[in-house]
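no rush on this but wanted to send it before i forget. what follows is a protein written twice so to speak, once as letters and once as structure tokens for the fold. mainly i need to know what kind of three dimensional shape the backbone takes. thanks a lot i owe you, the record is right below.
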Amino acid sequence: MNGMRRATKREVEQRKPILDALCQRLGIQDLVLCVADEPFPNAYALGSKTICVTKGLLKTANEEELAGVLAHEIGHVLSWHTL
């Protein structure tokens, strides 16, 4: 992935209700959200508590779709199925 970076405060705040609800429901704390500068929609889990989403996903996914993708990636984190 090109240009992966930690999500900005604004990017996190825009998705905070989704992230907080998922983290509480799935029992994960201190999740780190990163953003990759890629035009296509994609997401993946890294390490012990990091999820990376692409700019393409953030631009195209609605809240429900994004929640589904993030829940899926949190599942990978909890199962240690990460890159």
Remarks:
- DSSP finds three helices and four strands in the chain.
- Residues 18 and 67 are 6 Å apart (CA to CA).
- The domain at 5-78 is CATH 3.30.2010.10 (Zincin-like).
